[in-house]
Amino acid sequence: MASAVKRKLVVCGGNGFLGTRICKAACQRGWDVTSISRSGEPSWSSVTASQTAPAWSSQVSWQKGDILSPSSYNSQLSNADAVVHSMGILLEADYKGVLQGKESPLRGLQRAFSSTKQGTQNPLDQKEGEDLTPQEHDGQLTYEIKNRDSAVSLAQEANKKDVKDFVYISAAAGAPVLPQRYITTKREAESTLASQFPRMRSIFIRPGMLYDSSRSITMAMAGMTAMGAMANSMAGGRLTPLMGAGGTKPLKADVVAEATIEALEDGKVSGVVEVPEIELLANTAWRKGML
């Protein structure tokens, strides 16, 4: 009896904190998984509690590619059933520079919290073989590039390859300590993906704070965020505009990964997937795993 053909999943940003867990969840569900990132296989100590590659990682094809250069990765999209965009930035370079003491607080924060910054050229107008080019004078990788333009460009390449499903890892909300552009660029990406690629089923996963015991700092931050989420819940959600993601329930990264794969396998899921639905999807995946 012939074995069933595996579905192919391509995870862009698959060697990151969440991306590796999406790859793991997909492998456990029987997908043929390819990861695309600039460095290929992860530095395991940066995404897990161990320096040793886990057993499941041998099932993943760890490919190198630059999200700004479609020609470096688009061959990997051939015959893919689904593509996940799991990359973005929480802090821009100039904001990091302030925190690391590499740039004056005034200059760095003025630039970081600027209401407008350039992305790349319009990715919808990209010519065949053309790279995305940062438009800021110093070539900075802005929210507009990492959160929005790279996702639109990837979706366009996936659409050319007749990929059926596209998952964009978005966010539940911004935060008072982050520039507003962090969340507006994610919402712009969602809107463009939904309107420009009707042939693909688009799924927008919107988690809040992600945590895992392998990253102790995320555990501490999740504890504070959980208290904020409780206070927001007691206020009937009225604190959300003020608190942003700080008022949203934090989720374990594995939960979001499991929910992502379950959403792909559930043909009824499309559009925005908020925190409560993420938890429901992860619970469904857990129950299936127990059978």
Structural notes for this entry:
The protein has 291 residues and is α/β, with parallel strands linked by helices. The chain has helices at residues 17-28, 44-47, 93-99, 105-112, 143-160, 181-196, 216-234, 240-243, 253-265, 275-290; strands at 8-12, 32-37, 60-64, 82-85, 165-169, 201-205, 210-211, 251-252, 271-273. Strands 3-2-1-4-5-6-9 form a seven-stranded parallel β-sheet, with helices on both faces. A two-stranded parallel sheet has the order 7-8. α1 packs across α9, α3 (93-99) packs antiparallel against α4 and α9 crosses α10. The radius of gyration is 19 Å and the shape is globular. The two termini are 23 Å apart. The relative contact order is 0.12. The model has no long low-confidence stretch (mean pLDDT 89).
Task: Describe what is shown at a glance.
The protein has 291 residues and is of the alpha/beta class. Helix content is 40%, strand content 13%. Helix 1 crosses helix 9 (253-265).
Mean pLDDT: 89
Biggest sheet strand line-up: 3-2-1-4-5-6-9
| Count of distinct strands | 9
Helicity, as a percent range? 40-55%
What is the number of helical segments per DSSP (H or I, 4+ residues)? 10
| Oligomeric state as shown | single chain
Biggest sheet overview: 7 strands, parallel
Distance between the termini: 23 Å
The low-confidence parts are none
Query: Based on helices, strands and strand pairing, what is the structural class?
Result: alpha/beta
Shape, please?
Answer: globular
What is the strand content?
5-15%
